[in-house]
Specification:
Blueprint lengths: L8 H8 L3 H8 L6 H14 L5 H8 L4 E6 L5 H15 L4 E6 L4 H10 L7 E4 L6 H8 L5 E4 L9 E5 L1 H14 L5 E5 L5 H16 L9 E3 L4 H14 L5 E4 L2 H13 L9 E5 L3 H5 L5 E4 L2 H16 L8 E4 L2 E3 L6
Parallel strand pairs: 1-2, 1-3, 3-4, 4-5, 5-11, 6-7, 6-8, 8-9, 9-10
Antiparallel strand pairs: 10-12
């Protein structure tokens, strides 16, 4: 099979009537000669030349690419982030590469280590767990990095956070105001950043409402639908007097609603349900589900803007931005 001919920079130079170095300067934006740039661009279109990103990276250490590493690309909260990160980067000519880590710390550390290979110009990282090894790797990253999630204050990278403690407390207080007194909680793994924060917020909410925390009303799942469903069945079977369930994210809460339906319990008539993240899934569930927004879209946009500032050479101290939560009340908890 004959290999397809790939147009070269030499052909562009010949058609444009300029030197190879002039073509390189025009393509890299290193000239103010508008006439030469126009001639080079016309020649590029005529011969069908596509610059090699690998070669450009070796010469300029610039790839035009940014990576976003998150736990699960199928999670609607991360999709909301992507929908704001990608257009923000695209406006200034960057492409977005997505990497799903499965919340594997070794995978995340591997992503950080690979930054020295110059395959991207920057990274947005959203880890569920932050270990001491994460902290050390983030002290001297090879390219600019922004972390979405809670970091120790002395880690020298930009950090965008959600206040999920306050969000969980808001949800509990809402359920209490709606008349619930036996409020159960299905959390994510307690060794994760969001799992610990939401667990703390749940207990804070109970105490603020004058309710005594009861560890028997807490279950732990994996931030997935089936985990929420199985945990809710177990919880409601053992404690049929539960009159409200808070899920640590929308997937867990939707799983709980399915379990309640299987057990013949009505939402919200028998048991009220609230989720967290306020993804599109919450509004389209049946019944529509109340949920705490943790500003996924805003966190994605802010992270992209912070990264672009670093890529533009901003040497100011790292920023810590906290996006406040808000509660959207729908039929599932009224």
């Amino acid at each position: 099979m004959t290999q397809r001919h790939r147009p070269t920079i030499h052909e562009v130079a010949k058609v444009a009537g300029v030197s190879i170095s002039s073509v390189s300067r025009a393509l890299n934006g290193n000239t103010s000669n508008a006439d030469m740039v126009a001639r080079v661009n016309a020649a590029v279109q005529e011969v069908g030349y596509v610059p090699s990103m690998v070669a450009q990276s070796l010469k300029t250490r610039h790839t035009g690419q940014v990576a976003f590493a998150m736990e699960d690309i199928g999670n609607a909260a991360y999709l909301e982030m992507v929908r704001r990160i990608q257009p923000t980067l695209r406006e200034v000519g960057y492409r977005l590469l997505l990497h799903s880590t499965g919340a594997d710390a070794e995978d995340e550390l591997g992503v950080l280590a690979s930054l020295s290979q110059n395959y991207v110009d920057g990274l947005i990282l959203c880890p569920l767990r932050v270990t001491g090894r994460h902290v050390e790797a983030l002290r001297h990253p090879a390219v600019p990095v922004v972390v979405i999630g809670l970091l120790p204050d002395d880690v020298p990278v930009d950090n965008v956070r959600a206040d999920s403690r306050v969000g969980a407390r808001m949800a509990v207080e809402h359920l209490h105001e709606a008349g619930a007194r036996r409020i159960a909680f299905i959390d994510g793994p307690l060794d994760t950043v969001p799992g610990r924060a939401r667990h703390d917020g749940y207990r804070m909410g109970l105490e603020a409402c004058g309710l005594k925390p009861d560890d028997h009303l807490i279950r732990f799942a994996d931030f997935q639908f089936e985990g929420g469903r199985h945990s809710a069945r177990d919880l409601l079977t053992q404690h049929p007097d539960v009159d409200a369930v808070l899920g640590a994210n929308d997937l867990i809460a939707m799983g709980a609603m399915h379990a309640l339906r299987e057990l013949g319990r009505h939402v919200p008539g028998d048991v009220r349900v609230v989720g967290m993240d306020d993804t599109p899934l919450a509004a389209t569930s049946f019944p529509p589900m109340s949920s705490v927004s943790l500003g996924s879209a805003d966190r994605g946009r802010i992270a992209a803007e912070l990264l672009l500032r670093r890529l533009d050479g901003d040497g100011s101290p790292p920023e810590r931005v906290t996006v406040p939560p808000s509660l959207t009340i729908r039929e599932s908890s009224r």
